[in-house]
Amino acid sequence: MLVVFGLLLVALVIGVVLLWFSYGDRAGGTETFEQSVESGTEPVIRITNGRGKVRIQGTEGLETVEISARRYARGFNPTSAKENAAELPVEVSNEAEVEISSGGGSDTGVDYDLEAPQGSTVEVESEAGDVEVSGLDGDVTVRGESGDVSLEDIQGSILIETAQGDVSVKHLSTETGSAEITVDSGDVDIKDLVIGILEARVGSGDVALSGRFSGGGSAHVETGSIDVRLPSEDVKDLDLETRIGEIVRYDEQEAK
User: Fold this and answer.
1) How far apart are CA 236 and CA 142, in angstroms?
2) What is the pTM of this model?
3) 247 near 240, Cβ under 8 Å?
4) pLDDT tens digit sequence for 90-125
5) Measured between alpha carbons, how far is 127 from 233 in angstroms, rounded to an integer?
6) Contact partners, residue 48, CB within 8 Å, separation at least 6
7) Distance from CA of residue 244 to its chain's centroid?
8) What 8-state DSSP symbol labels residue 60?
9) Could you tell me the CA-to-CA distances from 136 to 23, 88, 118 in Å, in that order?
10) What is the pLDDT of residues 30-55, one digit of tens each?
């Protein structure tokens, strides 16, 4: 009888321990990293991030890159979670370029909020998380595996490559530049572009063109529709093609 009771007690203890490890890391904690980096008015900024959002806002007259990184992690309790978040490394270097990098696992990540000089050129590589960039005169490159991408008020060329996520590009003005957009799965929304060449390629998803468009190029969709809400003269040098789907043309000037 004592032997049976002992075995039951051991089994109970083991069950409690397993339950603790299975459900223990339920508390979340955050810790903020901040740094100001001297950069001049036209820096090149490279960000490499694991999990987390990236937001970059251009500011006229600024000569520094203001970095705010919200690190988050989990732990057995709020205190340990906050300590784990504080241990997440954020690497910043400023030699020829301003380079910012961080990793992260399934329960950790970093959300970046940057204020940068308006003349910045920006390159972002993100594993998982939304990317927002606005108010810059330089070129912008975004490569991501999962997450939405939003670019607005950009005066340089752009390149966007994402495996999964929606893309929004608004108010791009670069008469001699280009916009290259490649999306494996996700919708693309393009509004008010003055550009040299547009090359948009979508595997699965819809493309919407609206506002005004000046330039040439193409939009190709494998599976999905293309919704064109532009004056007819704006699309005379734009090739549109969808293999499985439809192209809907709507002349905004005729609707007025």
Assistant:
1) 29
2) 0.87
3) yes
4) 999 998 899 999 976 668 899 999 999 999 999 999
5) 39
6) 99, 100, 101, 102, 125
7) 28
8) T
9) 45, 29, 5
10) 899 999 999 999 999 999 999 999 99
